[in-house]
Structure formats: C-alpha cells, structure tokens
Amino acid sequence: MTPFELTEEQKEQILKEFKKNPDLMHITRKVFKDKKIDGRSKQGRAVRAFLAKQKKDYNTSVPTKVDDIELSKEQKAFLMSDNIQAGMNALEVARLTFKDRDVQPLSMKHRVIVDFLKTYRPEIVDDNEIVTREKWIAPKALSRVISKVNNFCGTTFDELTIQTKQKKLMEQLMIYLRSPRFNHFINQYTTLADRDLFESEFVRAIWDKPDLTNDELNLYVTVCTNYVRQKHIQQRIDKLNALLDDQDNERDITMRLTEIIKATSEELNQCEKRIESLTKDLNGSRTARLKAKGEENGSIFALVEAFQEREERDRMIMMAELQNKLIEEEADRLESMDDYKARILGISKKELL
C-alpha cells in the first residue's frame, strides 16, 4: 500500500466535498488537510484518478487552452466582399464575421481577423491594430543595433567602417536595450505600432548618451511611455471630433461630446507637460553631472578625441619635417656635382630650398 492510496474514509470525503465544490485543488486540500498541495501532487493525482473512475467531471484551476480558429469558406468570402471597407475597425469586422457581439479585443477571433486582413486586405487594417504575439527580444548583434540607430535617427553608420567612438556608443546602447524596465514596458504593448513608437523614441533619446545612470535610464523609459500615451489620447480626440461633426441637431449629444473633448484635450496637455518636464530634468541633471567632472575630462570620449587630434597633429609635423630633410639631402647631393653639371642644370642649393 502506497502512502497516498486512498482509504475508504478519504473516498467518502472526496465525494462529499465534490458535491460542495467540484474543484480538484479544493477537494485535495480538504481531504488531506494541506493548503500547499494541488491537483499536480501525488495526492491530487490519486483524487483525480478516483473521480475519473467515478465518472465525475471535476474542475481544475488550469485554464482551458483556446483552440486555433479556422475561418470557413463563407467567412473568408465575407471578408473579401464589399461589405468590408477601408476605415472599418478590425474588432467590429470580427464581430460581424463571427456574428458575435461579445468578441473581445485581442481575443483569438480578433487576432485571426487581423491576420487575415493584414494578408489579403492590407488597405483595411489600421497599423495601430496589427497585434503581435511575439515577445520583444533585445538585439545581440552589433549590426542590428546599428540598423536601429540608422532607421530611427537618420544616421548612416556601417559596421565595417564605423569609427571607434560610434562603435562604443552602439555597444552601450545594446546594454541599455537589455534594461529590465525597458523590456517590461515594451512587452506590455500588444500592437506593433505602439512597440515601434516606444522603441524608436527610446533609441533616439539615449543612443548618443553612454554615461546615463540607472535612474536616468528609467526616467527615459517613463518619457517614452508618455509618448505612447500621448498618441492614444490624440487618437481619442480625433475620433470624438469626427463624431461631433456627424451630429446635426442633437444638442444634448453635442454638448456632452464637447465636454468629453475638452476633458480629453486637458489630459493630452498634461501628458505633454509631463514629457517636457521629464526631458528638461533629464537634460539638466546630466549636464550638471558632466560639468562637475570638469570641462576637459567630462567625458572619456572627449579625452579620446583630444588625444587623437594631438596625435594627428604630431604625425603631420613629423611627416613635414621628414619631407624637408629629404629635400635638403637631395639639394646637397646636387650641389656636390662638379660646376659643369651644375651649370647645365642651372640650379643651386639656394634655389632648391
């Protein structure tokens, strides 16, 4: 007899608890008087086997996996018909296609419709509705980081010819993009448009700032979340204004819409002020910190540049001195020739120099 073989008393208690609550974890914990175990434990498996033998349909806390949805021929034909026109919302299209007003945003049905329209009717789908199920992963190759900077910042760096200074900036940016806070927020956004906006503003703001502290880095993340919020608020205002334009003589509705637009505009204004304030604080704190280090050595890159400039000047001076020395040696050689040859050449050392 194994330690978890059910006794007759336990079996009776299982059936009694099942009538009260058919949840497997509840029954297991009640029978064995242990709040730490669940249906995956040995006790839980014993309870599961007994209920199955008794043909009892128990519940579990594990969510049921949603099966993939296949569109029927009729549904595909409907999506390709003139019933679906540019400007329609993909969620509303999903509800019409499945004849279900309860279809929820980002549900499997919504995602299937967005994927279908993106493939076969791209003119219908708003970029802001393209949903991604993939997790954003920080780049591990320098070439990918360079590509992001070129795309977002208008630069033209090349991995093969990039200078040491810019290469160090890219390497530091790669570290910034692995920041836990940045990764947390970018993966909270479910649409590609929001992710792209968040990432592009982050890269544009910090790619040329290799000396940021962790606190400053987190504040830049906050600034970028406000850029995404600003976009959504503006979209709400645009939709409200369009709705207001459609109202003719409905005075009550018009007044209500005007109030909502005013409140939303104030929300937008506050968001813009947050962005301005955070950006000002970040620029000021960094400038003060660099100034405290001294104008000459405020940045390691400034030192490197100064060294490289001095090194270049010294090299040019040395080359000029060598060239003058060679000319003088050649003049001495010519002057050492006999007078006849010198007269034929018609030159002197003074003329050469």
Write the layout of secondary structure elements.
Elements: H1 8-20, H2 24-32, H3 42-53, H4 73-80, H5 90-98, H6 108-120, H7 142-153, H8 164-176, H9 180-186, H10 192-206, H11 214-246, H12 251-292, H13 300-335, H14 339-345, H15 349-352
Helix pairs in contact: 1-2, 2-3, 5-6, 7-8, 7-10, 10-11, 11-12
Summarize the structure.
The protein contains 15 helices and no strands.
Beta-strand residue percentage: under 5%
Question: Which structural class do you get from the secondary structure elements?
Answer: mainly alpha
Counting copies of identical and different chains, the oligomeric state is single chain
Rg from Cα: 36 Å
Q: N-to-C SSE series?
A: HHHHHHHHHHHHHHH
Give the low-pLDDT segments. none
Q: In angstroms, what separates the terminal alpha carbons?
A: 112 Å
Number of helical stretches of at least 4 residues: 15
Number of strands: 0
Major sheet characteristics: none
Question: What is the helical fraction, as a range of percent?
Answer: 55-70%
In one word, what is the shape?
Answer: extended
Summarize model confidence as the mean pLDDT.
80
Give a structural overview.
- By secondary structure, the chain is mostly helical.
- The chain contains 15 helices and no strands.
- The mean pLDDT is 80.
What structural keywords apply?
353 residues, mainly alpha, 4 domains, 15 helices
